[in-house]
Amino acid sequence: MIMLELECNFIERERYETVFGQRGEKKKLGSYHNSYFSEVEGFGRTKWVVGAHLEGDFSEHSDLTPEELAEGCIAFLNRPVGKRKKKCPYGNLELYRSKMNEDDTITVLLVVDQKKNKHFWGKGGTFNGITRRRKKK
Predict the structure, then answer these.
(1) In the chain, domain spans
(2) Are 69 and 6 contacting, i.e. CB atoms less than 8 angstroms apart?
(3) 3-state secondary structure of 111
(4) Neighbours of 48 (CB within 10 A)
(5) CA pair distance 30, 90, nearest whole angstrom
(6) Which H or E run includes 20?
(7) Rounded distance between C-alpha atoms, residue 25 and residue 22, angstroms
(8) With 80 as the cut, is the pLDDT of residue 75 above it?
(9) What are the backbone dihedrals phi and psi of residue 48, each rounded to the nearest 5 degrees, phi first?
(10) Which pLDDT score, from 0 to 100, does residue 28 have?
(11) In 19-133, at which residue ranges do the beta strands (DSSP E only) sit?
């Protein structure tokens, strides 16, 4: 299947807007998730999960599933920008999970390869993958 690039944008939100509503504070495009995602290969070492909301004109593509719409948006957002088109401003994004909302926006969990990015709230935690048992005395 040919990957379709759909023009879309992140929705800017305040840090705790979903909890407290808009308070007139600084806005960013998403936030690092603090949960542990064992299914993500390299989680906490080379990859982290970010929660965000996407908006775009999806009415032209009503035949696509929400998953395919989100994949198309991620393909568009992963394009390099800048004078020499070398850097992706959000890092390399991969879709982990998506959900279509009633207001024609998409809520996504994205896997990124940057522990800290200025466009997202917070930073990714570290996890070394080794759990040790306590010795009995």
Answers:
(1) 32-121
(2) yes
(3) strand
(4) 28
(5) 10
(6) helix 17-20
(7) 8
(8) yes
(9) -135, 165
(10) 87
(11) 27-28, 30-32, 48-56, 94-100, 105-112, 120-121
